[in-house]
Amino acid sequence: MACHLLLTDFTLPLKSPKLSHSRQQRKGRSNGSRKVSTTVAYYGLKTPPYNLDGLEPYMSKRALEVHWGVRHRGFVEDLNRQLRKSDILYGYTMDELVKTTFNNGNPLPEFNNVAEAWNHDFFWESMQPGGGDMPKLGLLGQIEKDFGSFTNFREKFVETALSLFGSGWVWLVLKRQDKRLAVVKTSNSINPIVWEGIPILNLDMWEHAYYLDYKNDKAKYVSMFMNHLVSWNAATVRLACAEAFVNLGEPKILIA
Amino acid sequence: MALRSLATRKTLTLGLNSTRLTQSRALQTFSLPDLPYDYGALEPAISGEIMQLHHQKHHQTYITNYNKALEQLHEAIQKGDFSTVAKLQSAIKFNGGGHINHSIFWQNIAPIREEGGEPPKGSLGWAIDTNFGSLESLIQKINAEGAALQGSGWVWLGLDKELKKLVIETTANQDPLVTKGAHLVPLLGIDVWEHAYYLQYKNVRPDYLKNIWKVINWKYANGVYEKESA
Fold first, then answer.
1. Cβ contact A201:A230 at 8 Å
2. Do B202 and A70 touch (CB under 8 A)?
3. Handedness of CA A92, A93, A95, A98 (dihedral sign)
């Protein structure tokens, strides 16, 4: 979704993948001949919209250095390496690539890398320093409409996160057909956009996401996320964008 | 006719109630098995911190939740609540599997001074050479499978009792090896859930897989192999 670009800090220079690729090419050819590459890798690693220590003490700088700096970076680099070999997948947006490589449940080798890159981009932007608290206005209204109350929603979110078996993610998603918000859990790297859901928030429930800070105490991690990290600002923007695609309310028909 | 069946049903329920009490007393609860070595005894291959968390927290949680699920299953069966019986199956597979798999795992590893890491002798060593060419080749294959496993799961060296050969298999989450084939017997399982290595190896699962062979207890695996292939 283009919407999550709004929160990216563009003042930080993005390392151009094309440059680093051609630098690699030059290194490998010492005999003078330079082969021109036909496919160019073009996904870059987006930096989170805060410093790596910005989520302390609820998510440590160390955790982000490993989770974002190594693991997320690894997905982007591996994806670029795969795309270099593929003519068919060249030119896709990340959303399109996720849906195409999901291949209706029989995922292609690129799926894991692109989906995890997508999921993590979305995750960093689902959090902010000084997050937590409660949503306001329209988003709160929609949550109350679809869950009964914010407390009900929070309970459902926490329960879903803690009942996930194995690795996966928990999402607040807008369901297009049902025209309502829902909490869903997905396994490994699956993302609700593959079934046309519109994600509003996500939470990484893979063990690597919380192990360095919380060891096996999943409940504390989820609680800290809800209390101090979740960015309702990001969620509000995403819901606003989603309303361009999903008609949530009854149209206001003025009666003269 | 209806009255009689009503009366019979009543006595039946009463009967069941009294047997339910005895049955729940007889309901088996599981408890955490002790490790035959100290938490720090597998250093530096696996850190003491990981061993302690893995045993005291993760394995214990599987046991606690397994016991709980079994109790709920027992109640649901008694009440004839078959939708709950069906709903509980995934919790039983997950937590029961977690208990089974980890109980095997603790015996699959041993401190170096207790012959952890010593290559397999006896019939298993011979079978490995026959099936895979060499121990190195086996290790390479297992490590490749373990590294490629996405998400959480286990990588196994198993014996196919029917085909009488060794196999390498992976299972997702806490699925026991038998879910991949009724004739499969686990000889060696390596936990590739992140909790098994993250604190020490971070994302580098291949390093964990490379190092764990220094503490693999081939004596145990050989014992199971000889017993099951008899």
1. yes
2. yes
3. positive
Annotated domain spans of chain B: 45-229
Beta bridge partners of B184: B160
End-to-end CA, chain B: 59
Q: Which residue has the tokens 């490629």?
A: B148
pLDDT of amino acid A11: 39
Task: Tell me, yes or no, if B207 comes closer than 8 A to chain A by beta carbon.
Answer: no
Q: Look at residue A87 in the predicted model and tell me its pLDDT.
A: 78
What is the Cα–Cα distance from A35 to A226, expressed in whole angstroms? 52
The answer to whether residue B147 neighbours chain A at the CB level (below 8 Å) is no
Question: Beta strand A168-175 with A198-204: parallel, antiparallel or unpaired?
Answer: antiparallel
Cα Dmax for chain B? 75
B174 touches chain A (CB under 8 A): yes
H-type alpha helices, chain B: 2-26, 48-52, 60-79, 82-108, 122-132, 135-148, 198-201, 205-212, 218-228
User: In this structure, is the dihedral angle defined by the CA atoms of residues B158, B159, B163 and B164, taken in order, positive or negative?
Assistant: positive
Question: A169 pairs with which residues across the strands?
Answer: A186, A204
Contact indicator for A212, A204 with CB cutoff of 8 Å = no
Q: Kindly report the CATH number that applies to the domain delimited by B45-229.
A: 3.55.40.20
Tell me if B189 sits within 8 A of B220, measured CB to CB. Answer: no
Strands of A180-187's sheet in order across: A180-187, A168-175, A198-204
Residue of B nearest to A62 (CA): B202
With CA atoms as reference, report the closest residue to A204 among B156, B199, B39, A191: A191
Residue B174 DSSP code: T
- Judge contact between A85 and A52, C-beta under 8 A: no
Chain A neighbors of B57, CB-CB under 8 A: 215-216
Put simply, whether B58 touches A (Cβ < 8 Å) is yes
ipTM entry: 0.85
Output the pTM of the full model.
0.85
Average pLDDT across chain B, whole number: 91
